[in-house]
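Weekly sync, protein design subgroup
Attendees: M.S., D.O., the rotation student, P.L. (late)

Item 1: inverse folding check
M.S. brought a backbone from last month's batch and wanted to see whether the design step gives back something sensible before we order anything. D.O. pointed out we never logged the input encoding, so this time it goes straight into the notes. Structure tokens as presented (190 positions):
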């Protein structure tokens, strides 16, 4: 029986503007596990178009620390604070981190029209694919569904496509609501 088992949790850290990558490098040199979700975006420069990687959540990075390393994060140049609610840093679940990693890695998918009996306000679970097991609320009904991963500690949303055949309606609302489904005509984040 281990009495001194150290537990690690993910936290969102607020950084200075445009310092996310430098904070990631510094944390890596300190041996602190971190995750900076990046997305590729096409930018128009004066003479050409260029693909660049930018943070999915500007000014945020995720760190996985124990209570021993919790305050070491503040020694990193560019770190402002942990994301706090009620004066306390709130952990981000590993499941949410894995959901973000999966969405960042996955390619855009085709979405096909379905006539499944899904109603507004119902809660659904994704049954297959990289987001299997994630639940959310159906906000709008249309020929396709844009699922939004809600990272409650950040108040941010990440978009991806899912077809109605990939959803299972839940009889009641889940206790936590990391996802909502909305129809949005914007291109999903990749």
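Designed sequence read out in the meeting:
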């Amino acid at each position: 029986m281990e009495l001194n088992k150290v537990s690690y949790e993910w936290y969102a850290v607020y950084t200075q503007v445009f310092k996310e990558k430098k904070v990631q490098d510094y944390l890596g040199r300190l041996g602190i596990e971190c995750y900076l979700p990046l997305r590729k975006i096409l930018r128009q420069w004066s003479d050409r178009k260029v693909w660049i990687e930018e943070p999915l959540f500007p000014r945020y990075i995720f760190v996985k620390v124990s209570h021993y390393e919790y305050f070491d994060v503040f020694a990193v140049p560019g770190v402002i604070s942990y994301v706090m609610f009620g004066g306390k840093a709130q952990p981000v679940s590993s499941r949410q981190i894995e959901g973000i990693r999966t969405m960042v890695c996955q390619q855009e998918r085709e979405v096909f029209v379905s006539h499944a009996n899904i109603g507004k306000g119902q809660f659904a679970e994704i049954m297959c694919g990289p987001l299997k097991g994630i639940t959310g609320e159906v906000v709008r009904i249309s020929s396709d569904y844009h699922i939004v991963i809600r990272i409650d500690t950040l108040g941010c949303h990440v978009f991806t496509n899912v077809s109605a055949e990939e959803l299972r309606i839940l009889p009641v609302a889940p206790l936590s609501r990391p996802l909502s489904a909305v129809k949005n005509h914007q291109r999903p984040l990749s």
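Discussion: The radius of gyration is 19 Å. The chain has a mean pLDDT of 75.
Action: P.L. to compare against the previous round before Friday.
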